[in-house]
Design brief:
seven-stranded mixed beta sheet; 139 residues; 7 strands
């Protein structure tokens, strides 16, 4: 289950590439995508790298294999609540997103870079999560 706030892409006037990247980022939070290697793989760039909130570095293959076991990987698992999406087009076909997540009592700020591949599809190239200590407010 995906939970998002009023910052839905359809609610914000923004560049179409930013909207597309937000939609795709949200798909990665969907349990049906996380449980399906082919669906997840279709959203990740071949050169994908993640630095998780734990500090662990993930490769494309590691992430595709691990997604079903991570939070949000099953309908019955703890949902990922994603809020405060903001995006910037860095260059044509390259979008930087920031947003926040809550998974139970864990709060993280996230940063993603999406880039268009040769077929014209946006794929997640880089993702980083930074834990937010308790009592830390926005920004």
């Amino acid at each position: 289950m995906i939970q998002n706030d009023r910052h839905a892409p359809e609610a914000l006037p923004q560049h179409p590439e930013v909207t597309e990247a937000i939609v795709r980022e949200r798909r990665l939070h969907d349990p049906s995508v996380r449980l399906s290697g082919p669906l997840a793989e279709a959203l990740l760039d071949a050169d994908f790298i993640e630095v998780g909130a734990s500090g662990r570095r993930w490769t494309h293959a590691e992430m595709v294999a691990a997604l079903p076991t991570l939070h949000g990987g099953a309908e019955s698992s703890i949902p990922i609540t994603a809020t405060h999406f903001e995006g910037t087009v860095l260059a044509p076909g390259i979008v930087h997103l920031t947003y926040e997540t809550r998974i139970e009592d864990r709060h993280a700020r996230r940063s993603s870079i999406w880039r268009r591949d040769a077929a014209g599809e946006f794929r997640l190239y880089y993702h980083q999560a930074t834990p937010v200590p308790d009592g830390t407010g926005r920004p």
